[in-house]
Amino acid sequence: MKISLKRINAFSRDYKKIRTLYRTAFPADERAPMWLMTLKANGENVDFWGLYADEKWVGLAYVISEMDASYLFYLALSESSRGKGLGSKALQSIIMQYEGQRLFLALEQLDESADNYAERKRRRNFYLKNGLKPLPVTIREATVTYDVMGTGEVSPNDYETMMKKYFGAASRLVSMKNKD
Question: Measuring CA to CA, how many Å separate 29 from each of 24, 25, 41, 106, 127?
Fold first, then answer.
């Protein structure tokens, strides 16, 4: 089964399902406003994707790019699509779409005291299994600090330049730093 990526906007057939998945897949303190994401996807350097397996909608991906770096800001599969290998296929399709780019993402830090530690560990192992490597930086977005994984190195300057372009004045709420 092949995963295809189709651009999404507010008028897309599956937009309501995508909006619902976005709200249920990510905690409120980890979500950018949907209206902003949709608006920004109409401009340059932002791709809002619907993920489709044989033309059936299965998930979403949101990628912000700058120069040769692409940030996989969000990736989620619908509940009915999970556990079927579609996540790996979706990630491989995204990696192929951004071939030649330094693709990276942020994920919750491994914290054994976290209520969802097992889920965090599974998520990290999923990305490792699919070829991403831990990077020696962390990202802070609003009140949450994340570990970073990717297909190539990314610097705090790369990230901050990207976020200034995306968020404008609100970019002060996000930062990347080298791990100590």
Answer: 12, 12, 21, 14, 22
